[in-house]
Amino acid sequence: MNEIGSGLNYRIAVDIPKNRLYTWFFGEIMRVEDNPELLSDVEKACRSLKAGFTAFSDLSGVKMIGLPDIAQGVQTIMLNCGVSKVASVWKQESFSKLVVDSSAQKAGSYAEKRKTFFDHTEAEAWLDGRS
Questions:
Q1: To 10 degrees, the CA torsion angle through 3, 45, 124, 8?
Q2: Within 13 A of 30's CA, how many CA atoms are on the CB side?
Q3: By the 8 A CB rule, do 125 and 131 touch?
Q4: Bridge partners of 3?
Q5: Can you tell me the distance from the alpha carbon of 5 to that of 93, in angstroms, rounded to the nearest whole number?
Q6: Residue 97 pLDDT > 70, yes or no?
Q7: Distance between CA 105 and CA 33 in Å, rounded?
Q8: Above pLDDT 90, what percent of the chain?
Q9: What is 41-88 written as a DSSP string?
């Protein structure tokens, strides 16, 4: 796995052989200034993969997301770069999950490519086509 970038509330890596983007988000994501490179790191990661890539997004460590425009920006970049499937993993239902779900609905066909999980193993199995 190759690390692409990180900030106060995120970490991004890619697995080239799997053609998969990995993102981890954590803490309270409330200010754009706290993660100024997030969108450029997402784009850099996506551009290093081939169209049709899958994405694993671990949001189980998120306490609060108050930036729906940033969430939609991440989703739009992934969609524009050719993501085929997105598995997002949450610890539980939360307000933050509602924010991300809502922004996914606004990001065109992104919502159709996305499935939510509460278990990392199930999410990876779905992305690998094993479930």
A1: 60
A2: 5
A3: yes
A4: 13
A5: 27
A6: no
A7: 25
A8: 63
A9: HHHHHHHTS-TT-EEEEEEEEEEEE--HHHHHHHHHHHHHTT--EEEE
